[in-house]
Design a protein that fits this description.
Elements lengths: L1 H16 L3 H4 L5 H10 L3 E5 L3 H13 L4 H13 L21 E6 L5 E7 L5 H11 L4 E3 H10 L10 H12 L16 E6 L5 E7 L20 E4 L3 E7 L1 H6 L2 H10 L4 H15 L8 E7 L4 E7 L3 E5 L4 E5 L1 E4 L2
Parallel strand pairs: 3-4, 10-13
Antiparallel strand pairs: 1-5, 1-11, 2-3, 2-6, 5-6, 7-8, 8-9, 9-10, 11-12
Helix pairs in contact: 4-5, 5-6, 10-11
The structure holds N-hydroxy-L-asparagine.
Length: 330
């Protein structure tokens, strides 16, 4: 018996000699941990065409040792300060009374988050949101309180209603009979950005001037953690763009992250959330919502109710726009 066992073991040992090295060493080989690291390469995604310039700034942060949090803040600040953009920060379209009111939030890999809503005359609400996160015990500050907080922290007051935005608002006012809020869906919407740094940590940011010509005081999904943005470093991150009311109703970004936790890919998770929105709304006219998601493996995906939603992807091999899949044609 003993001899037979020995022979069997010898046979196994000699067979092992012919196993290719890559297979034989698969359990202990450092190549495996390298593979894991490959998946943790930095990646940034953000909504719409303005995402390209934002991703560039975010990438520069990552390359110079910044965290994912530094990256998303730096990235979306570009869009906030771009006065040609009509739906974020400076130059954003105002509410029906002509006041530009801004919403933003930010979240890091430790579930820390900060937000501002109905903030006026401050160009970079995302940086105020970060200060709320890092320098107060609160998550969200709104309105005059948010403005006072920002001024105390050294932000400067600025008129955000540019000539272009004012002209558009006045033209809208002329059409008195059509005086309804207009959802933006032509590639000039909120910026939501998600990033993974080289440590594999995730962060996200979302910032907007909201629904053009909204009722004064209206706040959408963008500054609401779990609606416009959600990050769970164990699973992934998601953000939303489009009609905020619909996103809030299904706790959109949180839902997308939970779906990824169940094993769905980023695109599948976004698609299921979009389908949920469609099921919960009887009237889908003009109801555009797009979700964007990034998981811990660095995989990305997006999905929207209607055609036209796209997002910018940047990593060390690519820097491009991707058209999201969708359900309905306009
Ligand atoms: C919001 N999701 O405030 C944002 C953006 C938006 O037109 O509506 N843009 O609902």
């Amino acid at each position: 018996m003993k001899r037979r066992l020995f022979l069997n073991l010898s046979a196994l040992a000699s067979f092992a000699l012919f196993i290719p090295k890559s297979i034989a060493k698969v359990k202990s080989d450092p190549i495996k941990s390298n593979l894991n690291r490959v998946k943790k390469k930095p990646v940034i995604i953000s909504t719409w065409n303005h995402g390209l310039a934002a991703n560039k700034a975010a990438w520069e942060k990552l390359e110079t040792g910044g965290t994912a949090l530094d990256a998303v803040e730096a990235g979306v600040r570009i869009t906030e300060s771009d006065e040609t953009n009509r739906s974020v920060g400076l130059g954003g379209l105002p509410d029906r009374d002509g006041n530009v009111t801004l919403d933003a939030c930010i979240m890091n890999h430790e579930n820390e988050c900060g937000a501002v809503a109905f903030l006026q005359e401050i160009e970079n609400p995302i940086s105020v949101a970060r200060k709320v996160m890092e320098e107060t015990p609160h998550v969200m500050i709104v309105g005059i309180g948010a403005q006072e907080f920002a001024l105390k922290k050294g932000f400067e007051k600025k008129n955000l209603l540019t000539e272009g935005a004012k002209k558009a608002w006045m033209e809208w006012k002329e059409k008195e009979d059509k005086k309804k809020p207009v959802i933006n869906h032509e590639n000039h919407d909120t910026i939501g950005m998600l990033a993974m740094d080289k440590e594999g940590n995730l962060s996200g940011a979302c910032t907007t001037s909201g629904w053009a010509y909204k009722l004064p005081g209206r706040v959408g999904d963008s500054p609401i953690i779990g609606a416009g943005l959600f990050v769970d470093n164990e699973v992934g991150a998601a953000c939303a763009t489009g009609m905020g009311e619909a996103v809030i109703r299904i706790a959109g970004s949180s839902s997308v992250v939970e779906l990824m936790r169940q094993g769905y890919s980023p695109e599948e998770a976004c698609k299921i959330a979009v389908k949920r929105i469609q099921r919960k709304h009887k009237n889908l006219k003009n109801l555009q919502v797009g979700f964007l998601a990034l998981n811990k493996d660095g995989e990305v995906g997006g999905y929207s109710v209607y055609a036209g939603f796209n997002y910018a992807l940047k990593n060390d091999v690519t820097d491009k726009m991707i058209d999201a899949n969708y359900d309905l044609e306009w």
